[in-house]
Amino acid sequence: MNLSFFDQFTSPYLLGIPLILLSVLFPTLLFPTPNNRWITNRLSTLQLWLLNLITKQLMIPLNKKGHKWALILTSLMILLLTINLLGLLPYTFTPTTQLSMNMALAFPLWLATLLTGLRNQPTTSLGHLLPEGTPTPLIPALIMIETASLLIRPLALGVRLTANLTAGHLLIQLIST
Amino acid sequence: VLHTTRALHTAQQRLAPLPPLPEKGGEVRYGLIPEEFFQFLYPKTGVTGPYMLGTGLLLYFLSKEIYVINHETVAAACILSVIIYGIKKYGSDVAAFADKLNEEKVAKALSVKNEAIKDLETAIEQEKKEQWRVEGCKYLFDSKRNNVAMLLETNYRERLLTVYNEVKKRLDYQVAMQNLKRQKEQDHMIQWVERNVAQSITPQQQKESIAKCILDLKALSKTAQAAV
Question: Where are the transmembrane segments (chain B) (predicted)?
């Protein structure tokens, strides 16, 4: 079978069985399950060290209440990092090149941040619709613009990731041959 | 999923203590194929068995075009060589780094324990010293008691002396008073006698006494001349 450059972006099927779930869950196999050892083997030690580094980087600017987001943000980052890096190997499939998966990630998270902001601090979150220091005549127009950008955000997030990954992998394939 | 220990089919699962990790991982040949595979094939095919199997499989896939050589093959070869080079070059450094992380963890805990032990030892030393001091207290108390007794004695003696002096002063006063009185009486009496005698001496008696004195003197002068 002749492979074209776009074959890496088709969802993998084996004898009619979709393997997409396997390809999404495979990177989780690479990280060891937490066991109750204090001194772990070298692989676990290194991965834990890396996780600690990433979590600290994410969480230092936040105050105590923001640390609730630590788990989901770190795990999301590590998953996406692993999926994208594994996709660079030949004969692999990158799930994040599918628009469906990225929209599935972007839409709920964006909605979660929006609703959390509206529930906890409604005035501040609505106040973000207007940037500081705008001259008075521009206010109505700017509010419309900011609202539009807010609503477009999930689409932007999803499409951004898809486009970046697709373009990147394709470019790498092109350059390497 | 927690790794628990459990004797096969006999015991309940136990969360602690975990068996220690083995020193080295499973033996692997060429980084991919475990040694047990070679041992498994050894009785039937000898040493070259697995290599023949691998070569045969590879040639089969290539010749029957089950695996087609395309651009990704070249990419795979390049990526593989880079990965192997990276592992060979930096593998031991990374392993040393991971070991260092673990060592630091253990060292931190050990240092806590050691410092606790040291603190307790110094506490024991100080306690022993305090006990020795308490033993010495007996002598201290004896000497203090002696001091106090001496002070009391001294004070008592001083007060005794004061009392003696005061009493002596009063008695001396009485004696002096009596002496003075007697003296005064004596003086007065002498004066009275002298006054009376002086008054009683009449001029007649005066002349007679003077004449007598002259006669006596003459008699004496005679005898005195003889003595010379």
Answer: none
**Could you tell me if A37 lies within 8 Å of chain B, comparing CB atoms?**
yes
What's the whole-model pTM score?
0.64
pLDDT of residue B1: 43
The tokens for A12 are 């993998």
Q: What is the 3-state secondary structure (H, E, C) of A130-176?
A: CCCCCCHHHHHHHHHHHHHHHHHHHHHHHHHHHHHHHHHHHHHHHHH
Range of the domain at B61: 27-68
Could you tell me the residue ranges of all domains in chain A?
1-94, 98-176
Cα–Cα distances in Å, from B148 out to B135, B141, B158, B161? 21, 10, 15, 20
Residue A91 to residue B74, Cβ atoms within 8 A: no
Within a 10 A sphere around the Cβ of B49, how many other Cβ atoms?
16
- Whether residue B155 lies inside any domain: the answer is yes
Q: Token digits for B138?
A: 């007996």
Respond yes or no on whether the N-terminal peptide bond of residue B17 is cis (omega within 30° of 0): yes
- In B, which residues are within 8 Å of A45 by CB distance? 98, 101-102
- Residue A168, pLDDT score: 87
Judged by CB atoms closer than 8 Å, whether chains meet at A46 and B98 is answered as yes
**What residue type is assigned to position B5 of the chain?**
T
Separation CA B224–CA B216 (nearest Å): 12
Q: Which residues from A are below 8 Å from B97, CB to CB?
A: 46
